[in-house]
């Protein structure tokens, strides 16, 4: 592919092409129209810190690539339909987004959702986060896992696999449980309905994992078996830790103030106390999870976005296949 160069290390066996920012941004060249003012506003609503430059230089070319992959995939299922003498309706194309807590998965997912919606042919793009497949706090407490949220054992992975299998089987409607960061728990009386979108984006730190528990499930299937294109959002650990602490400070002044917030007690902390608390949660929970369970899955992704300390993407690695 134009502009990409093979990975510098292990050049002979690496499946990735590497693009620096300059090379990558050129790949939006044939996008027919720039983002409209209205679309830019919508993107700003997703994350006020996301720059227009970032959206158009990084995420727009990425949406162009995804659009081509989705179209190719649809052609392939039409070919199978032709073979079967039956134009079987295509099932949702699933894009997975993985990476550490606080690396920016949700933001990436929402930007891609907004951009993909404007491509012709697949206007219905839904978004599900694997947070909904965490066990409720009641179960986590019983199992002594309250300090292990986000670790493989804190998810009902079988249920997540069942959800994806049902979606890929062409069901008219599938449902996912809903997690609330405010309640810090699964909402018992809420369900997210997914009705055969053209594309489903599944965002979560665990989507590329294949731990022992999953292998024991029968039949032997992994979450990644249902993902057509996977993206890993990557950054230096020091940067992610800082983003985690910064986000915690923002939440202390905003969401934690809400008396309904599980972390309402944190609203009363001073800036220094909040910083200490956030650093401790990072050190005790999210950092070990990154090292032990998330980073080892990075090279399973089709595409790796590497961010610099200001969240701007410095490098894109794309698997040849
Ligand atoms: N592209 C971006 N530009 C600027 N800031 C960003 C960008 N992406 C994310 N951020 C900031 O980084 C922090 C984490 O982002 P986000 O909530 O999207 O992460 P996440 O990976 O979904 O985290 P979690 O797994 O904890 O839900 C937030 O403070 C967000 O505002
Ligand atoms: C719900 C997860 C696991 C993933 O989004 C994460 O946001 C989380 O709650 N981690 C546990 C430690 C913490 O509160 O940051």
Automatic annotation (TrEMBL):
GO terms for biological process: coenzyme A biosynthetic process. One of its GO terms (molecular function) is ATP binding. ATP binds at residues 99-106. Residues 94-238 form the Phosphoribulokinase/uridine kinase domain. Pfam families: PRK (PF00485). InterPro entries: P-loop_NTPase, PanK, PRK/URK. CDD domains: PanK. Belongs to the prokaryotic pantothenate kinase family. This is Pantothenate kinase. It comes from Melghirimyces profundicolus. The gene is coaA.
